[in-house]
Specification:
Blueprint lengths: L4 E5 L6 H9 L17 E7 L2 E7 L10 H16 L2 E7 L6 H13 L3 E6 L21 E3 L8 H10 L14 E6 L6 H9 L17 E7 L2 E7 L12 H16 L2 E7 L6 H12 L3 E7 L9 H14 L8 E3 L8 H15 L5 H14 L12 E8 L4 E6 L7 H15 L7 E6 L4
Length: 440
């Protein structure tokens, strides 16, 4: 059975993301001292008193949105309500009852969902009386809490857990693939995720950098349970001058770390630039599987076979690591080959977890050495004795030698190419570690 869902809602800048982080015990949602930082729904699994549940952080809701982005944030909150089993309504105890609080309370009462009212920013709970003012919202007993210090959070979670449906607790199925969608800002990452999900789960906007957090969304495709991670766009470090974008970059880097495979999306209409290669290389260096997705291919005028072949040759000439990465054209707008991208990512995950028997490793290693001997140093012959694969995801091979420090980098690349020729590993980096064989 799926986990019950608790949605955190409230007007902007009342401390929803701070409370989200406090409940999780880690800084997952971005927090800054200005309203409107959280725009998309942010998912994470939490646990209290033996009850597991999914926690959803939402953007601030306003009663009279005056911009398109505000309208979409409110839509995200309303969508979260549709999928929630319980609501955690956060208000600002220092500011008192606000007109927007009354508006949100009215929306929540009409939803019919169980609701816990958290009066935040009350650091001295023993003397706090401000929470009594919030009885007028008609949502039951207000719970005083300080998300920043953690005071009152235990009592709050006791109330939250008590609102969960008794038969909704369960253990979720294991995830078959953790898939991070990476790339520069405004290349269509969120549109790609929404197309794959069949709904507007993440906000799409023509303003670059709309996605700030790394958003986890679960979807089942052809019997495979996939965790999709839509990340903030990665720009050059010199371009990151905003504190929120800086933390967003850290979240995107963390998303790469916990992914099995990364989809590198590029905007083919605007052209592939050096930063695209840098973003992909960050995932490759982290040992992650990689699929190169040429998005907006439907907007390219000349899409004949020669155009595609020329495009791939140019990519692999500019990015050396792309020689081993599958390249696929797609369109998030039309849905062209979007499902095929996921199928390819699942295959890359299998390649990344491939294990080669030791006897086969040594057979191929011997053949490669016979074809080209290791470069010899001034201290005598450099010999390779035997090798073995010691890890997967990514594949790691250890080769024992009499003088591993004398083996040049270009020869290691030669061995890697030989291993790929023998076993493929398409889309996955492979690593070779040299060790000195003990003297006998």
């Amino acid at each position: 059975m799926s986990l019950p869902t608790v949605a955190i809602v409230g007007r902007p800048n009342v401390g929803k993301s701070t409370l989200f982080n406090r409940i999780l015990g880690r800084r997952q949602a971005i927090v800054a001292e200005r309203p409107g930082v959280t725009r998309d729904r942010q998912f994470a699994d939490a646990e209290w008193s033996g009850r597991a549940f999914r926690l959803v952080d939402t953007g601030g809701i306003v009663d009279r949105p005056d911009g398109r982005l505000d309208v979409e944030v409110r839509s995200q909150v309303q969508t979260a309500l549709l999928h929630a089993d319980s609501i955690l309504f956060v208000v600002d105890g220092r500011a008192g009852v606000h007109a927007v609080d009354r508006y949100v309370a009215e929306v929540l009462r009409k939803s019919g969902l169980p609701c816990v009212l958290a009066v935040n920013k009350l650091d001295e709970l023993a003397e706090a009386e401000a929470h009594f003012d919030f009885f007028e919202l008609g949502l039951g007993d207000p719970i005083p809490v300080s998300a920043l210090s953690g005071k009152g959070s235990g009592d709050l979670l006791d109330h939250v857990v008590s609102t969960l449906p008794p038969d909704a607790a369960g253990v979720e199925k294991e995830v078959d693939l953790r898939l991070a969608v990476i790339g520069r800002p405004n290349v269509g990452k969120s549109s790609f995720v929404n197309r794959l999900l069949g709904e507007d789960r993440v906000i799409v906007h023509d303003e670059a950098g709309t996605t700030r957090d790394a958003i986890d969304t679960y979807v089942e495709i052809d019997g495979k349970r996939i965790c999709l991670i839509d990340t903030a766009g990665l720009r050059r470090q010199s371009k990151v001058d905003d504190d929120v974008e800086f933390y967003g970059r850290l979240r995107a880097t963390g998303a790469i770390e916990r992914a099995d495979v990364c989809l590198l999306l590029v905007d083919t209409q605007r052209g592939v630039v050096n930063q695209d290669f840098r973003v992909g290389h960050s995932a490759w260096d982290a040992g992650k599987g990689l699929v190169f997705v040429a998005n907006k291919w439907d907007l390219i005028d000349d899409r004949g076979p020669d155009r595609l072949a020329e495009f791939e040759r140019d990519l692999r000439a500019r990015g050396h690591y792309l020689r081993w990465v599958p390249i696929i054209t797609s369109s998030a707008l039309t849905g062209q080959r979007v499902r095929k991208v996921v199928e390819l990512a699942l295959q890359v995950k299998e390649n990344r977890e491939l294990r080669i028997p030791t006897a086969e490793v040594n057979r191929v290693l011997q053949r490669l050495v016979e074809r080209r001997q290791p470069p010899q140093g001034g201290r005598g012959d450099v010999r390779l004795f035997y090798g073995s694969q010691v890890a997967t995801a990514p594949p790691l091979f250890v080769i024992w030698s009499n003088r591993p420090k004398d083996l040049k980098e270009h020869y290691i690349r030669y061995l890697q190419a030989g291993f790929r020729e023998a076993w493929g590993f398409e889309g996955s980096p492979i690593r070779i570690k040299l060790k000195k064989r003990p003297d006998r």
